[in-house]
Structures are given as structure tokens and as C-alpha cells.
Specification:
By secondary structure, the chain is α/β, with parallel strands linked by helices. The chain has 20 helices and 32 strands. 28% of the residues lie in helices and 21% in strands. Helix 12 crosses helix 17, helix 14 runs parallel beside helix 15 and helix 19 runs parallel beside helix 20. The two termini are 16 Å apart.
Length: 726
């Protein structure tokens, strides 16, 4: 599996300036190699949202000798050197950002300064508007070089200012801003761009062409949910969204058509004008608008369609150039809107809404959403512990806190990316740099157990993620309650109204391995929940699954008839007839449970753990409890035969010593679907250790050696050691 790096490489003690990343150096590649990195995200060629010639300069601009002496390289050279080391570099497309910067010009028309001005040269601006109008720097290639025939917008008009034409607009007609990247102490403006605009779609394709020609191994479509992010500001009412919503309404089934529009002529309907005539002003939260659900559903379908189209274009253009390029996006917090684009990507890159010291349930959620694809997770500086952790690490503290975040990712089937000058937002004038020795140590430990890492678990419990209900909760929930701000970080993502989040947290904290099975909203993705797929699980938990399609209900009923245990938490199948509903909730093995007691409804547990003792008695502080640990069980292959691995993470932390409490005497018993001839323990920095094991009915039982933060127990059918990593 991949070992990812959040590779912005922004400078310490300075703001992180979107969208252009600092120049790269050869020494960075040495450091990446030392930490056993395989994949870089948010890592190269981000300047396309300033202009295409600026992006080409990032890729190919000659490096002066003064900078060569320190190993500086342009992005194309950096990408090639990384590829020679087996490191994938993903070019990042900042899809939602359209930039204009304050600048100063030399007498010859070249840039004297940009963003950080120095009082030299003629004042001016530089960005998308100047590029489109050919009034930018004199060494920029003209607009017609990239678009010989120009670009025509949806009204058939030649585009003369793409920055204005393709921007998302509020109910008042003003451009919305990507304010999560703008800095208030700089003369810079980032319009929130709209992928519903055919103009912006064509521009994004041009960015992609340059990145692929420059050699990237993958393209990362950041802000992959656009223009849904405009809904956090009150919605987008540009010409393209207005026309698209009109077509959406015209295509509705008569049974779903809103009563409010019964007397409206849809041939001329303008949603923004209709709202303004009813007294609504900008910014009004979308959830408070009439037609909010239909409007959100339109954006959801449009977001899926435009993302899939762009992802397909990436693959097609790469093939035309004789290359194979991977595609990913930013799946942010694993919100329901991303389910419809998973099939279009090769791996899932995600960004937590609020990073915490412990959240294995969240990792299991996003691994489930990824449906077998690898997951790379980046730390979000807002709404969580990252600011305090960065400050502590900078003082030489909390190293075990940092280490455990990477091991937690591995133990849940994902990869928590290493921070390498990563983003600290617009409020903190710094970047997240971790100690090199720590990253080298963790990278080596994860590389050593790579053959024991997997996205496929051996869990016997499945939790259904009800996507249609989750989308409804998002539209009406706290994240969309405000307006004028892209993301409300005070809105807790696992809002207590949503039973699903409470269920998976309860299972994780009670050491019950589980898989997440997204229940598709069949308007956006075909159903893949079948009785055969469910049959591998002893138990299926249905957390408040109120919207269930007939095919999904039939699959669940067949599972229950076949002896599967169904646990219903909250409501189920409000849209079903009584017979279809009863076939699941009244089955012989069905049960009801509150979210807080769902763990007690799991009988004959797959994993039984005696967590032993903490390290008290050797100068350490007592107090570690069973809740301080997490265990994940995964399907792997050892010497060509099915095998399993159990990953143990110890969250026990001694504040006084600023270190993890060591674990002694951990004994675990696990039910596995294959015979076991050998058990081996893998600890960071140590040689693999053979373990004695017992068989107790269907369970295999071992005692783990003493460990600090992370241990992996391998259960193999082969009697002798072998395979990758030995």
C-alpha cells in the first residue's frame, strides 16, 4: 500500500500562499526516499488558476545558477527525479480557485514582484483576467496560444474575462470568494469558480494537459465537489447554474414536482429572480430557501457529471500521449456527495473536517466510502488538534502523539499522510513540518509491514451508510446553516442527530471490527448491495436507514432469511410498504438497539481482547484502559495463500512523561476464515518475533509482546517465514 506525503513544502513561519507551491529541491527527494514515501499529494503544478503561462513556468522555467547550486529544480525536473526513485507525484488542480494578485511590473513588462510587493516598478494586477485579455506579463504566452479559436460561453459569447465569466455568484449577483485560501493582509482575490460553467471546464482541461505533458504520475482534482461548496455561501446563481437548475426541474417526475412551481413557466424560470421577488437576499442559508432540496439535488447530479467528465478526459488525454495517469480528488470529510464520483478515481485522497488525536471510526468510514481503493488522508488545520500539535512538535514535544496518528491510519486500512510543509490555513503563519528522524522511523516501520496492510478487512460486522438519508441530513444540517463562509468548522461532522456516526464510534471503542457499506442513492449510483455481498457478514447494522430502494430491501430481506443477524438502530424503510419493511425488521434474527448499546447486540464476538496492563511500575503513570486501544483485522496474502493481520494501536498517553504508555500482557483471540500454522509479531524497529498460539474453538489466541504504540500480528497458513518484507 501507498505511504503518502502531504507535500505542499510551504515555508515555516510564513503564510501558505495558494495556489503556487514553492520551488522544489533535490534534497527534498533524498528526504522523501529516507522516509520510504511512495506518493505525494498537493505536490506540484498548482499555478494554473493564476494562468496557463504561469503554470508552464512552474513546469519548465530555467533555474538560475544561483539556485542550482542549492539543488533547486523546476516541477517537470522534480517529477522526473521522483519517478526515478519510484515516487508518484500528483499534480494538483485547484478547481475552485480563480486568482488575481497585486503585482509590480518592470519597464519591459515582466514581473518585478507579485503578492509580496517591494515598491519596485509599475503597480498592476496579475491573474486570470490579465491572461484572458493579454495584458499580463510580457513573457507570458498569449491566450490564443492555448485557445486558438477562443472560448465561447453558454450564451454563445466569446469570453473576454474568464475570471468574471466562470465565477460562482451569490443571490445578489456578486462573485463568491474562495475565502478559505485568501489572505486578508495581502492584495489578492480568489473567486470561487464554477465547474458548471463550460468555460471553466475547458480551462481545467488545459491545466490537465500541461500537467500530463510535464510528466505527473497522477492528477488530483482538489475541491472536487464544486460547485456544491458554493452552497455553503448561500448558493450559486450564475447563468450556468440557473439554466442547469431549470433543466433539472423540467426533467423531474411529475410526482416529485414542487407545488411552489405549479403555475410557473419553466421555459423562462430563473431561480435567483424568483427568490428575490419573494424577498430573499444574499446570503440566505440554502436550507432556508424554498426548493432547497431540489436545488441541492441538481448541484449533486451536476457535480457528479462534471467530475466524471473531467476524470475521463484526464485518462483519455494521457492515453493519447502514450501514458497512463492516475486520477484522484479531494474527498474532504467523506461526505455523502462524494459517493457518486468514487468510480471515477484510482485512489481516494481525503481531508478531515477536524483532525483529532483519536478517530479510528472516521478512517473506517472513509475506507468504506472508497470501496476498495486506497485512501490517503491529509490533516486539516481547522477545527481540530493540528495547531496545538504543530506548536508542541515545534517545541520538541508530543512526538508519540504524532507517531500514533500514522499508525492509526495503517491500523484502519488507510494511510495518514506525512506532513511535509503542509497547509496551516490562512490564519496561522506557518507550515506543518515534522521531525525528519521521526518520519524516517515511522516510514521504515510501515514499509516493513506493507505486506500486512490492506484495504480489505476480515470484519464480520457491516454497518450500512445510508447515503440518501445522509445527504438529506447534510442539506438540512448545521454545515449548511450559515451563509457567507465556505466551511463552518464549528459544525461537528458526526453531528449527534446522525445515528450512523454514533454507531460506528460505539463499535470502534468496543473493539468490534466492522466494515462500512455505502447504501447507494440510486438516483446517482446503481445499487451494489446484494444478498450475496452481505452473506459474508454475521451481522449487519442498519443505522437510521429510512430511505431504502426495493432492490436494497430485497437484498436485506434475503440476508435475514438466510440466517444473517440484522440490528436496526433508529428507523428503517419509511418509504417501504409494510411487507417489505417487516421482512427485515421482523426477521427471526432481527433486533433493535439504541446507538449507545449497539456493541452489546453483537453476540459471539470475532475479536476478544484482554488488554493486559500498562507500563505503571517503571516510573510510568498508571491509567491506560481498554478504551485506549484499537484493533483492526485485515485480509492479506502471505506466500500466495490467504492470511490475516491484526493491527493494534495504543492511544494510552502519559501527559507528565509526554510519551505513550507501554502495553504488556495483551492477549487477543480472533476468529479467522482460514487455518493458521504460524503467528508472528511485527513491532516498529524490531525483527519479526514468532509467537506461540492456541486454538479455542473457531478462535486463534496469542499473547502479544510488550509494545509502545503499534504492533501487527500476522496469522499465516505457511509454517515457515517468507514473503515480501522478510
Amino acid at each position: 500500500m501507498r505511504r503518502g506525503v502531504y507535500f505542499d513544502a510551504w515555508f515555516a513561519n510564513q503564510h501558505n500562499y495558494h495556489p503556487s507551491l514553492p520551488s522544489r529541491r533535490l534534497r527534498m527527494i533524498e528526504e522523501l526516499t529516507d522516509m520510504a514515501a511512495t506518493t505525494l499529494v498537493w505536490s506540484a503544478l498548482g499555478g494554473g488558476s493564476i494562468s496557463l503561462p504561469y503554470l508552464e513556468q512552474e513546469a519548465y522555467q530555467p533555474i538560475p545558477a544561483r539556485f542550482r547550486i542549492h539543488g533547486h529544480v523546476n516541477d517537470a525536473e522534480f517529477i522526473a527525479h521522483c519517478r526515478a526513485r519510484g515516487i508518484e507525484v500528483f499534480g494538483v488542480v485547484f478547481e475552485a480557485q480563480g486568482w488575481e494578485f497585486a503585482a509590480e511590473y518592470n519597464d519591459d513588462g515582466t514581473l518585478a514582484s507579485i503578492n509580496e510587493l517591494r515598491g519596485a516598478g509599475r503597480p498592476g494586477r496579475v491573474g486570470l483576467s490579465e491572461f484572458n485579455a493579454d495584458t499580463g506579463p510580457s513573457d507570458w504566452k498569449p491566450w490564443r496560444h492555448y485557445f486558438p479559436d477562443g472560448i465561447v460561453n453558454s450564451l454563445g459569447q466569446p469570453v473576454v474575462d474568464i475570471w468574471e465569466d466562470a465565477a460562482s455568484r451569490g443571490l445578489d449577483g456578486r462573485p463568491l470568494h474562495a475565502n478559505w485560501v485568501e489572505l486578508s493582509d495581502r492584495e489578492q482575490t480568489a473567486h470561487l469558480m464554477d465547474r458548471n460553467s463550460p468555460v471553466w471546464q475547458e480551462y481545467l482541461k488545459a491545466i490537465v494537459r500541461i500537467q500530463i505533458d510535464a510528466g505527473v504520475s497522477g492528477v488530483q482534482l482538489d475541491e472536487s465537489e464544486i460547485p456544491i461548496n458554493a452552497l455553503y455561501y448561500g448558493g450559486c446563481f450564475c447563468k450556468d447554474c440557473t439554466a442547469g437548475f431549470r433543466r433539472h426541474l423540467q426533467g423531474l417526475d411529475p410526482a416529485d414536482f414542487p407545488d411552489e412551481l405549479a403555475q410557473v413557466d419553466l421555459e423562462t424560470f430563473d431561480y435567483g429572480d424568483w427568490l428575490r421577488r419573494r424577498g430573499f437576499t444574499a446570503p440566505t442559508p440554502v436550507r432556508d430557501l424554498p426548493l432547497a432540496r431540489q436545488y441541492a439535488d441538481f448541484h449533486l447530479a451536476a457535480m457528479h457529471r462534471s467530475f466524471r467528465d473531467l476524470a475521463a478526459y484526464i485518462k483519455r488525454y494521457a492515453a493519447e500521449r502514450g501514458r497512463e495517469v492516475k486520477v484522484s480528488g479531494n474527498f474532504y470529510n467523506g461526505n455523502p456527495e462524494y459517493d457518486g464520483i468514487v468510480e471515477a478515481v484510482d485512489l481516494v485522497i481525503s481531508e478531515m473536517h477536524a483532525t483529532a488525536y483519536r478517530q479510528p471510526w472516521w478512517f473506517r468510514h472513509v475506507v468504506g466510502l472508497a470501496r476498495g481503493r486506497e485512501v490517503l488522508v491529509a490533516q486539516n488545520p481547522y477545527g481540530g488538534i493540528i495547531p496545538e500539535l504543530v506548536a508542541a512538535v515545534g517545541q520538541g514535544k508530543c512526538h508519540d502523539r504524532l507517531r500514533v496518528s500514522f499508525y492509526e491510519g495503517a491500523a484502519t486500512g488507510a494511510s495518514m499522510t506525512f506532513p511535509f510543509g503542509s497547509w496551516m490555513g490562512t490564519e496561522i503563519e506557518n507550515a506543518f513540518w515534522a521531525p525528519k528522524a521521526l518520519l524516517d522511523e515511522v516510514g521504515a516501520a510501515l514499509a516493513a509491514v506493507d505486506h500486512l496492510r490492506s484495504t480489505t478487512s476480515r470484519a464480520e460486522v457491516a454497518v450500512v451508510y445510508p447515503l440518501a438519508d445522509a445527504w438529506s441530513a447534510e442539506v438540512t444540517g448545521p454545515r449548511w446553516a450559515g451563509a457567507g463562509s465556505a466551511v463552518d468548522y464549528s459544525a461537528v461532522p458526526d453531528d449527534q442527530r446522525i445515528v450512523y456516526w454514533r454507531v460506528i464510534k460505539e463499535l470502534a471503542e468496543n473493539h468490534i471490527p466492522f466494515d462500512v457499506l455505502p447504501l447507494p442513492d440510486e438516483r446517482h449510483r446503481p445499487n451494489d448491495i446484494t444478498a450475496e455481498r452481505l452473506s459474508r457478514y454475521r451481522q449487519v447494522v442498519l443505522p437510521d436507514c429510512r430511505t431504502v430502494s426495493p432492490d436494497q430491501a430485497a437484498a436485506l430481506a434475503a440476508y435475514a432469511r438466510g440466517g444473517g443477524v440484522v440490528v436496526v438502530v433508529g428507523g428503517y424503510g419509511d418509504n417501504l410498504d409494510d411487507a417489505a419493511r417487516a421482512a427485515v425488521v421482523e426477521g427471526p434474527a432481527s433486533a433493535w438497539a439504541p446507538a449507545e448499546a449497539v456493541a452489546s447486540a453483537v453476540a459471539d464476538r470475532q475479536l476478544r481482547i484482554d488488554w493486559g496492563a500498562d507500563g505503571a511500575g517503571d516510573g510510568e503513570t498508571a491509567g491506560a484502559a481498554s478504551g485506549d486501544l484499537y484493533a483492526g483485522v485485515f485480509a492479506v496474502d502471505v506466500q500466495g495463500a490467504p492470511a490475516s493481520s491484526v493491527h493494534l494501536v495504543n492511544y494510552g498517553y502519559d501527559e507528565r512523561r509526554d510519551a505513550a504508555r507501554r502495553r504488556r500482557g495483551v492477549r487477543l483471540s480472533v476468529r479467522l476464515p482460514h487455518p493458521v500454522a504460524r503467528a508472528t509479531a511485527w513491532l516498529p524497529g524490531q525483527a519479526p518475533m514468532p509467537l506461540a498460539f492456541d486454538r479455542d474453538g473457531g478462535h486463534v489466541t496469542v499473547s502479544a509482546p510488550e509494545f509502545s504504540l503499534y504492533a501487527v500480528i500476522e496469522f499465516a497458513q505457511a509454517a515457515e517465514a517468507g514473503g515480501e518484507g522478510r
